[in-house]
Each structure stands twice: as structure tokens, then as C-alpha cells.
Amino acid sequence: MGKGKTSKFFILALAGIIGFSLYTCFTVGSAGAAEKYDLVFWHAKASHRGKVWQKMVDEFNKTHPNIQVTATYQGGYTATLQKITTAIAAGATPDATEIPNRYGIPQFAESGKLLPLNQFMSKKEVNDIFEGVRKRFTYKGKLYAIPNATSNSLLYYNADAFKEVGLDPNKPPKDWDELVAYAKKLTRDLDGDGKIDKWGLGTHTTTNYFLYALILQNGGKILDEKGNPLFNSKKGVEACQFWSDLVHKHKVMPALTHKATNKLFVAGTTAMMFQSTSFLAKIDKQIGNRFEVRVDFLPKKKEYGTGLGGTGIGIFKSNPKREAATWEFVKWATSSKWAAYWSENTGYIVTTKSAQKLPSHKEFLETHPRYNVAARQMKYAALMPATKADGIIYKPFAKLAEKMEADPNVDIKKELDAVAELVRKGAQ
Amino acid sequence: MNQDEELIRKYQELARKRENRRHIFLYVFLGLGSAIALFPIYWMVLTALKPIDEIFIYPPTFLPSRLAFENFVEAWTSAPFGRYFINSIIITGLTTASHVAIACLTAYAFVALRFPGRDVIFLAFLGTMMIPSVVTLVPTFVLIKKLNWIDTYRGLVIPHMVSVFGIFLLRQFFLTIPKDYEDAARIDGCGRFGILWRMYIPLAKPAIAALAIFSFYHVWNEFFWPLVITSIDEMRTLSVGLRYFIDESAVDWELVMAGATMVVGPVLLAFFVAQRQFVRGITMTGLKA
Amino acid sequence: MVNTQLARANSSTLSERMSLSLAEMSLAQLRRKKMKEACTGYLYLLPSITILICFWFFPAFYAFVISFYRWDFMNPVKTFVGLGNYVSLVTSAEFWRVMLNTVYYMFGSIPTAMFLALILALALNERIKFLAFFRASIFAPVISCIIAMSAVWLWMYDPVNGLLNYLLQLVGGRPMQWLSDTQTAMPALIIMDIWKHTGYDMIIYLAGIQSIPESYYEASKIDGAGRWHRFRYITWPLLAPTTLFILIISVIRRFQVFSMVHTMTQGGPAGATDVIVYYLYEKAFQDFQMGYAFSISYILFIVILAATLIQWKVGAKRVHYAR
Fold it and tell me: Which of A187, B2, B260, C63 keeps 20 to 30 A from B135, CA to CA?
């Protein structure tokens, strides 16, 4: 039998290993190199689009030998927002990152770690960015991120299905009434078993964006410049009621099936859908030749309107020289030439007037009518500067959509007032 | 005596028939259970092997028209799955080894050694299982940043080197070993560590095997911690890589299923092969509180 | 403790004095031995305690402190609110709603999974062919990565084109809305939970059953006991410690359900599957209310602790140990 000495040795060895690991980690971070910068850039673009980013970054690295950028995917928009939060909390921020426009800008800005970008840009350059999308990244008058990938919501429709029920695919529904009429024709029970086999309209999971869009289309507003609620007006209630009617009164939209919307549309089960422009790039692959897909503006009521999705690139504070180098990268990536390149390869929309005026991009839009539709709808986009209210209304609106779809008798005014109350309480 | 033999034979035949009937019933029951258990996994593999335009048609097909291996190829190349796999292996291996080693030591201390506060400390250990890990996520991350362990194997492994469940499991098992064994070992001249090394551990081999497998699949499938602590692709694990596939705005279903198969596959295969040891291990743990 | 000095003072004979000195010596030896044992004990605990203190207790304590503040972890300014978070939490309807959802989830999944696990384990205890295959198959869901399986189940639960509805219709049933209906969403999650965890409980039950000595059964067979009789009076009582173990672990783990909700329903539809930890997560990462989120976790901790202690106490009275 062994003696007690082996035990001590074993324990001490284990403790030693742990201690050694702990010790080796207390090395001081390496100091910055002389004039060469190794920058870390985070983005939220997956697979195919991530590859486009990589191509751009590789190109930048080739042409800027003293500034080398490493780009890493951090997950989808929600995951990236989480990562940014924990990074700021721990002081582990990258040099630059894509920031989804959903919510969080005010908190990130107030942390003091995000760099206001106005110091790098002239007024002309700032105003070159489309107002709706620029406002999303502006907090208390300062611009905290440059929009680099913007999407809005489109009406996708199955041209073959239109023809099947006698509708003209060259005349997609222009307003709410036409939308309902068309959808009714397209919603069919093919085999008479009482179960609807083909639906007229499906909507993607971003239901809150669609509610915002409906409110805008009805002539209402969502928030004012300071973030005070304007959505619980009569116009707001009407807009939400329309959503509820689509499910319960007109019965053209299946309730609570948003996650499956893509699948259903691609399978030909749903004839129309509200979906982001970013889906354009995927359609052809998933549908192939089975039917023809076209897009148009979201139908209007009093006017056209759409929410905005996408990201902007923000820079974190470090030291002036490093920040300047990072700005070089961001400026390059959002310049007209590369913004157009990005848009043409991913389906996102360019965000500056000069990029839109670029001859090569104009040509692209002309030869790709679907992308053109998205670009033209930009001027009807919501104007909402970043405020803390964004985060407060985000989930409640999605929940409201779900509540309405689950129950036709929901008191919409009461619900909207409750959300408005949350905003008032939270904006302290 | 012919009549008696006749009777005995008849009785045995009846008993066998009843036994067979029971067995058939058991087979059906267990077969159904297995089918239900395996069905989603089968569906995952099936979808991964279907060509992309076949995935979305309705009604769905139960056999692929052809084996679309290109899904796997594309999934594999969409993200550095090879790297993810290596990371997962390294981290899971290190963490599992540490779980076992530390559980042995700690459980032994709780069972065979007496020291003030022993039970209180054990309860404190148990308490760690009662707070969701989402809570310690951010504060631990802040700590890891201060130690400069972000994007390192250290950061992925060390915070999780202790498995309180493992300590609990082994403690329960050690409690079933009669004290006389220990006294006998002591008389033979074994020191404290000797008793652990030469007596408890060999007796507990099945329980240790069980712990190893529990730890393995738990760490292999772990998602939140690697997600938070890695910001560069080279350090990511399979589960994180898979999650990234499940992009929020548009889902590449064929890739998702191919990726899912690649993540679930190895663990399932390893388990089917090693399950005998595993079950023996749990069996012999004699779960007395 | 022997008062040796007093004894010495009062002793007279040499032999008495000698035996007292011997007693003193062994007492001192005993004390030294006890200290040595204690030191060894602490030494053996060192690795786990160090790691747990650094990476668990310390961050948890930090989170506890933050629960008394209003803070988003990013802003340089923290606002102290004392028990404010706890008070608003306990008085908010939201919190009780998610608590109710979580309890609903637990009551739906735990008894069913345990029951199924028990009968499966009993079935597997027989001598039949393909035992290993059945056992491994039923355990397979446990080790499958939940993220991977969530994608598959989402597909199966699709209310329009989904597989489950298709299969239901094949056998003449009506299609269900599953995750798309506030009434059926939680049951749908419960079903998935049962699918995933029954194998785990089953394996542990199997262990418990197989550790019951054959002799008990043989004795009862001789006495003419039937199957049901044997189960009710031998198997079930002797399985009580195992049942208690599974119950306690199940309650602790199910209270903290998160990944499934996070990947499948995100708390929807309309909050039907909003469980405590998911609510916590949203408060932390979407509303940026870290302090509030941490107070949720500490209240949850107290609830789980209370539940565990209750089960332990009740169990101690009714469970008989073979030790």
C-alpha cells in the first residue's frame, strides 16, 4: 500500500497546475505597435453575407498595409447586441462593430465607450445619409454609427399563384383594401376538408416592424424625437386593428405562424408575404424554377410606410491614433463604391444619396428590378431617432401582435396605452 | 410418474406461452418508445440528406430522392467546422478529465475525512446548482476579461472545472462502501491518499465512467459560456457554431440540419458504442441519499 | 474531555499517575491526529473550493450586490435602490405570471417523465433481446444537443406544413396549432421536454431497480406474491431513495429551464411560454436592467432552496434507507 506522501504530491501537483495556469494568465496585455494597427471588427452577418464582408476586409487589408483588420461573426442581431453589452460591461470591446439598429444605441452611447462620429465627418457627409436611417443611429444629436446595411420590408408575391386565381401579377395590391381583396382570392380550401390549404398572406417573425409600418401607413407616428409615445393614438389603434382583422375578420393570414412564413412561401402554400429585403438573395436558391416571385412596396393606407432593419458600424474609444485608423476602415467600407458593392452582393440597400447616384449602382438597380423596389421605398421609411423607448417597445409590440392573433377581442387601445405607460416609466 | 411429468410439462408450456406474450408486449412497448425517441433524430438526418428543393415540399417525403451530401459539404465549408470540432474535443476532454479528478478528491473528502464545517460546505456546494448560470455569466465574464482569458482555452475550461453534480454523484456512491473496507485498508498501512487511489477509485470505476459520460455530453452541448467568452472564430465550439447557423432573419434549413447532424452524430455514435460501461456505472451507484 | 490537571492533582499512586500521563499523551496525539485529518480534508477540498470561490461564489456575490442597484452594467453611473428591485418584482403581475408558467411547466413534465421512466425501466429490467439497443435509443435524446434538436422540433411543430400535423392527419386526428396557439404552446414544450429527459430518469431508475437484491423477489415468489404485489411492496418502496433523488434533481433543473424556450418560442406566443429564467434573460439583455434581473435570480434561488428542503424533509420521513 502506498504511503501518504503520494497523496501530498498529487494534491500539490494539481494545485500547482491550477496555480500555474492562473499565474501565466496575469501577463500584461501587449502594447500597441508603432504605426501598424491590428484592428478587431465584429459583424453580424452570417454565411453568405459574412463571406462578402470577408472579401471586402481582405481587399482593405491588401490596400492598407499599415492597418490590418480581422473581422469576426458574432451571431445574429440579438446575439451581437448581447455581445456588445457584455463587451462594454467587461471593457472587452473590439475596435469597431456592426450595431443592429433595433435598440441599445442610447445605452451604448451613455456608457461612454462608443465614439461619436461627428468629429470625423463634415455636415455634408452626414446629411448625405438618408434621414430615416441616419436618425436611427443618432442619440442626443450625435451620430454614433454609420449605417452600412439597411433593409426595409417588402411585399413578396407568387406571380404564378396570382395567375391561378385570375389576378394580374403586374398589378400587385396597392393599398390595404386591395391587399385584403387579393388575399381573400388567394386563400383557398382546395380539397373541401374545411382546412385552408393555401393562404393569402404570411408575415415574418419581425411582427413589431410590420405593426410600425402599418401605423405609418395609416398616417400615424410611433415615437417623437424625444422618444415619447405617439403610437397609442387613434391612427395607431386602427392600424393594429387592421392586423387583427387580417387574421380574424378577413381570415387571410394564419395566426401565429410567423416562424414558418419563409417555409410556407417557398413551398407555395402562402401566396404573399411581408418579409425583409434581405431575403431577396435567398429566394432564387430556395425556390428555383418552381414559381415566379416578385416584390413591391408594402401596401399603403394614407401613405406608404415601412420600418427599417439592418446595422450601422460604430467605433469604440481607445486612443486617438487608433480611433483614427479605425475610422479609416469604417470610412472605406461605407464609401459609395464599397457600399454599392455590398448592396449588390447581399440585397441590402445603399444608405447614402451619393451611393445611390453612382452610375454603376444605378445600372445595377435598373437590371435588378427587385432591388430597385426596395431602394425606392426608402423614402417612405420611418423617422425614429434612437431613444431608450426603442428597447422598451420592441418586445411589447411583438407580444401585442401575438395577443391580437390569439384573441380577436383584445382591447387594442388598452394594450397600446399600457406600452405607452412602460415608455413613460422607463425613460428616466 | 408419467402423469406428473405430463402435468409439469403442461405447466411449463403455459408459463412459457405467458412469458412469450409478455415479451411480445414488452417488445412492442419498448419498440414504440425507441421509435418515438429516435424519430426526431432520424428526421434531422433525413432532412440533412435531402436536396434543397425537396426539403420544402408538402406533404413531406420520408426518404430522400437522392443522398444530397452537398449539404454537408456546404455546411462544413460555410464555417470552420473542423476547427470547431477540434475545439470541442479539447475543451470537452480537459473539462471532463478535471470533473472526474476533482470529484474524486472532493467526494472522498466529504465521505472519509472529518473536518469542521463539512456538511455546511457540502450544502453550499449543492446550493451552486440552484442559481441559473445566466446570472453569473456577466460577472464571470468581467473577471475573465481582467485575467485576459478571453478567447483562450483556459477561459473556456477553468471556470467550469468543477462539477458539483459529479461530486454529489460520487459522494452518494462512496457512501455505499462499507467502512470496514476502509479500516482494513488502513490496517494494511494505506495512507489517506492510498485509500482513495487504491480502494475507493477502483471500486467506483463504473460510477466514474458514468460521470465521465454525463460530463462529456454536458460540456459538448454547452452553449452559453463558449458563446460569451469567444469572440474569434478559431476558438468557437461546435454548439456555438451551430447556433450561428440558425440565423434569425432567414434560415438555411438544409445547412442547419446538416450542421445539427454533425454536432449530434459523434456523441450518439460514441454513446452507442460505450453504453454498456455507462449503464453499469449508473447501476452501481446505488443512489441512496 | 478529561480534566487531566485536576486528575493529576488528585491522584496519588504511581500507576495512577502513569496511566494519566499515557491518557494525556494519547489525548494530545488524538488532537493532533484530528487536526491532521482536518488539514488533509481541507487540502483535498482545495481545488474545487478555489475554483468555485473564484468563478462561482465571487461572481454570484457580485451579482447579489448589483441586485440592490439600478444599473445596466455599462453606464458609469449606478443608482442604489436598496430593496427596490425586490419589492417591484414581488409586486409585479409579470413576475407571478412567469412563475406560474414555470410551475405549470414543471407539473406537466416532471410526473409524466418520471412515470414513463419508471415503466420503461421496469420493462428494460427483463431479459429480452435488443436490450442494449432499446436502452441506447431511449437515452439518445438526452445527449443530443438541444440547439440541434430545437431546430428539428420547430420543423415538426410547424402548424401548416409540419410533420406532426401530417402524421396526425394520417391517423385521422385533427391538426394542432402547437407552438402557434397560446393554449397549446406550453404543452408542446412539455412534450418536447418529456421526450428529451425521460431517458435520463429511466437510466437512474434502472440503476435503482437493478440494485434491489434478487433474494427479496425470490422470497416473495415463494410466498406466492404476484407481479403487482411484488412491485407495490418491494420494488416501489425500495426505489424510494431513487425517486427522491430524481425528483429533487428534476425540480432544481426544471425550475431553471431556459435553452428550450430561448430557441423555440422566445417566451411566446403572447407570453404563454415565458418562464422565469427567460424573463430574467430578457430583462438583462434586452431591457438592460441588470440589477432587476439579478434580483429575479436571487428570489428564484430562495424558491428552489425552499422546494428542495421541503422535498428533503418530506422524503426523510417517508423514505427508508437500506443503510
Answer: B260
